[in-house]
Amino acid sequence: MATFISVPLKKSSEVDLVKPLTKFICATYTAAEDQGEYVRAAEELNKLRKSAVGRPLDKHESSLEVLLRYYDQLCAIEPKFPFSENQLCLTFTWKDAFDKGSLFGGSVKLALASLGYEKSCVLFNIGALASQIAYEQNLDNDEGLKTAAKYYQLASGAFSNIKDTVLSALNREPTMDISPDTVGTLSQIMLAQAQEVFFLKATSGILSSIFVLA
């Protein structure tokens, strides 16, 4: 039986999204009705971040859905707000996923005032959690094999996307876990594991046919 691996999650420090977003909203939108609507949206985004990255996540599809929802919201708000050190400044701090950077070396954590950095780290956790969900599947049945293949493929895609975008989103060297070389390697490993699961599924079907014929 093949040996599969999963990827640990990155951990982040708490960030108050409400105050800086509210300050910007109140300075930009003068209509009281508009302000109230946008402030409530900022509060909901803050709650969503706490659910997505502010607590331990179960190795379950429902936890992955929370991460995906938060990532989608980040993509939606990015073009609407001037996130930068000189305008709407929000600093996000994330630790290296691999035990204080010991696996690959490099810095333990990185703090950046960059929404692109936050997106990259959340995307890393999407890939990591998908790999953990796949790893937990029972590969002795067809449903487990299908689920494992699905989530190893999702993990591969998430890590590959970071490889293609992370350097353009940051203005300094990232921690080693999200460096292009590392996430590129992780993407290939996850893809290889998905292919291995497909092979196991195919061979299990062949063996079942043989036993039926026998």
Automatic annotation (TrEMBL):
From what superkingdom does this record's organism come? Eukaryota
Q: Which residues form the BRO1 domain?
A: 3-214
Alphabetical list of SMART domains matching this protein: BRO1 (SM01041)
Q: Name one Pfam family in it.
A: BRO1
Q: Which InterPro entries match?
A: BRO1_dom, BRO1_sf
Among PANTHER family, the record links this protein to: PCD6 INTERACTING PROTEIN-RELATED, PROGRAMMED CELL DEATH 6-INTERACTING PROTEIN
Protein name (Swiss-Prot/TrEMBL) = PDC6I protein
Native organism is Polyodon spathula
